[in-house]
């Protein structure tokens, strides 16, 4: 062996390779995490859109049900008046 590359150098190279492998593993995990975050954000945006539609539909339902309730009581008043007039 020449003096420039002794047994110590080879152990150092092996250690560097192990550390690089660890770094590559961490990079892979980070990429996977970023991908999951992006997917999650897409799903949250879809849920937000659906929630907006549900809110809109619930407001429409509330308006229609209020109108139906008013019409119901208006009809009840008319039937009451007709019943009283019919008794005379």
Automatic annotation (TrEMBL):
Pfam families linked: Synaptobrevin
* Residue span, V-SNARE coiled-coil homology domain: 15-75
Q: Which InterPro entries match?
A: Synaptobrevin-like, Synaptobrevin/VAMP, V_SNARE_CC
Key words of the record: Coiled coil
Record-level GO cellular component terms: membrane
Q: Where are the transmembrane segments?
A: none
Please name the GO terms of the biological process aspect recorded for this protein, alphabetically: vesicle-mediated transport
Supply the name of the protein: Synaptobrevin
> From what superkingdom does this record's organism come?
Eukaryota
């Amino acid at each position: 062996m020449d003096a420039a590359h002794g047994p110590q150098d080879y152990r150092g190279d092996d250690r560097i390779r192990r550390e690089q492998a660890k770094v590559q593993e961490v990079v892979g995990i980070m990429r996977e995490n970023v991908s999951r975050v992006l997917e999650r954000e897409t799903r949250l945006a879809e849920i937000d859109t659906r929630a907006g539609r549900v809110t809109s539909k619930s407001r429409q339902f509330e308006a229609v049900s209020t109108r139906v309730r008013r019409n119901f009581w208006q009809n009840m008043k008319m039937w009451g008046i007709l019943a009283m007039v019919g008794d005379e």
